[in-house]
Amino acid sequence: MKNSEILDRFFKLEKKYNLFESNTNGGIKWWDIVRYDVYIQILYLTVRKPAPKLTRIKNNRFNVFTLLYQDIKYLLKMRNRRVRNFFYTYPRGVDENGFSVDLISQDCLSIIKSQSFVVDGLQTGSTKECSYNNTALLIFKKLFKLTAKKNILNADINLILKNEFKIDFDFDKKINELLGNYNADRLYYNKLLHFYKPEIVFFLATGGEKGLIASAKHLDIKTAELQHGQTNRYHMYYSYPEGVVYNKNLTIPDTFLSFSEHWHTINYPVKNKISIGNSLFKNMNMNDTPRSGQSLLVISNGTFAPDLIPLIKSLATKLPDIPVVFKLHPQQKGHEREEAKQVFLGLPNVEIICTEKTTPELLNEASAVIAIQSTVVYEALQLGVKVFLYAKQDFESHDDIFINPNVYVIDEAKDIVDNVTRPFVKTDQGVFFKGFNKQKFIDFLNDSHSSSN
């Protein structure tokens, strides 16, 4: 089954069974809370391959007592500060000094940090400036699970999805886990937000912020999401069937702060879409000077690695003089990185990179990108870098750029070898990314704060 077919079927069943209006026995409109995770699970049961099970080394910095101590210090620091903004960050990157950093949030935080309650959404405990690790939420969720009752859905979701997609999976159990987390988050953030009374909640979406959004809506606090990745019609967090509009039943933000207007075309039914750009992409413009030499950048993660690794091993053998950078996901550190190095042992032209360099830095050194599915392919095209899309799993999620003459959909290493020296063809493409527009963000702040007074 193709990714495009799965998408069409998913939208149809949402309408057919009126899922957005479905309730639990507790009166919760449950579908919008779980649909993203349900869709991802469907992909793993159809077009995606399960991520390999790697041995993980537990990091001592995640020790709950250390994080709790840091949180107490942060709360004491914030006790006399006016909080106008609640900022939920996602620090996946690492700066030159080894501190965890959310590169996407830096532009906005630099303007409003002094009046913001900042949350480390990954509980890294290693941000440069003190932030809140939400340790109390971790503890609360464990206690909540002990007393939480099962949510009874008013639809037989297992039967619906089995009939539509010919798959056998206990979605009811998964949905109850998601709703349990949602209910715990909602209760927790109701207390936290009510205490600090911010005017705006900022966040980066990872799929698990529905409880935070619901709490903010309940307290009449505005919500704004910062774009951090690809947001086209195949990303179910952002993609909704035509006819679905912004309403009280949807746990989505009021405002979507995007990289550029290119990402405003799909039906993500927020109230406002504002293109503010981001400094991470400030040099995201094509250089008129042709790139010298050949080098390949591979964008991987745990899901796509099983397909990409054999392809790159074959390619590195066929092109021994061309350097290949195999870029891991930022969260693939430690043991996973060492395992990747072992996989490519004996191939001196393959280098493993995790967070040592940012993706824009790597793109500036590359002549072509190899990927299955990633936001990086859009970054590459804007910088004048060719893209090889490996026709595996859900590569179809990039069908919006299939007609671009610089995108090559490939089936094997030979397809890359045959086209690796082809020059980049300049086209009249839309801009995927813009530099940070500080004034636009300030205007948004002023409008939001004034309407909250």
From TrEMBL:
Gene3D superfamilies: 3.40.50.12580. InterPro entries: TagF_C. This is UDP-N-acetylglucosamine 2-epimerase domain-containing protein.
